[in-house]
Sequence to fold (441 residues):
Amino acid sequence: MNNDYTNPAFKKLLQKLQEESWQLELLISGFAIFGLFSAFEPLKIAVKQAKNNGIIHEGIIAQIALIACIILIFNLLLHVLLRGLWIGALGLRYVSGDIDYEKLNYGEKFTKYLKKKVGSFDKYIATLENYCSIIFAISFLLIFYVLAVSFTILCIALIAGYIINNDSLPEWIKIVFGATSIVFILLGMLFTFIDFVTQGFLKKKKWLSKIYFPFYWIFSFITLSFLYRPIVYNFLDNKFGKRLSFLLFPLFLILFFSLSLNYNFSNYFSISNNSNEYIANNNNYEDLIDEKSGFIDNAAIQSKVITDNFIKVFVKFSESVENRIFNYNKGLKPEKDIRGLTTDITFNEEFIDYIKRDSLKREYIKTFNKIYYVKIDSLVQKTQFIVSRSKKGNLGFETYISSKNLSEGKHTLEVKRKALNKEKDTVYYSITTIPFWYFKD
Fold:
């Protein structure tokens, strides 16, 4: 096939494809909607799981994917609805033709009004066709907008993390390169947003366009706009497309607001309340945690009703737990922090470093046992935490406490920790309070 866009044969082919594109639109929309609805719940769970495990980069990726999923579901459902109405209108036109206002036999005032406001049935079909085509095209363009915002924020985070907060760099480099880059990106975000909302105002004014051009050029790479810029300008030179773009923006705001709504059954309690002496949250009992969407909330025991001769206590691991251990025992803090994304490929120096860290694992667990302890009904229990995994696969610390001396009925288990403040005084914090009932088997 000749892809020379100046060739009349190629233009004729494009015209033919445009006329038959509605079939591909419906086919793609149908498969996409099915796939998006299948992915929606797993993405929600992935966002919660990343948040629960404290894995920031996974949480950001999952959140971006979830936002893109919501936008596509909304747009494609709207597209299928309007395209179905368009097909119905075509079928009706085949049977009934155009609207015959004379046959309706309405009064003169209504006939004139309807001819002006409703007009030709062919015009109605053409309008529906325009809406369908533009909504389908803008659906995927909006995903690029989401990615553009995400990449811009990522750039700011990378500059802040690797330049401004990098202690190995001289102060003048942090100020000159770090701060200047942040200011440039923030100004670029502002200018790009103004230009987008005003539909090219900064490009129209001669002196403003010269100032804006460097920001525009850099942001074309940061936001990947060079991939979808032709579609954007094709929208901007079409009055109908511009109107629809402005209409969709408030619709998305309403959509995201509606997704954040919850119904409160009480003025005092909700299903999201954390466990304490008089509230039991399922996320603190391993046998009640939902297999798909539930996660351990800081700590958990095996069941709400204990009939065993022991109570299993599991404290979930997080980066903040390790930071507390480093703060309490300075000797455990390594010179090079390897937390975050890593690879299985190791070099000789890294292998030697790994051996050194391995020898400090006992000291690490010993320090954890000094910091964290368990109370049942205000009495400190004898514990010996070891590293383990929960039923949900969470990495954490596990210990077992005898329940033989407990009386039957309700009890309260509290996981607490010690910490050193700035004055090196020991302070105590409560991690989780879990109510449970003990009955002899």
Q: What stands out?
A: The chain has two domains: 21-165+228-259, 282-336+345-438. Residues 282-336+345-438 form one domain. The chain has 13 helices and nine strands. Strands lie at 299-301, 305-306, 310-316, 372-376, 379-380, 386-389, 395-402, 409-420, 426-438.
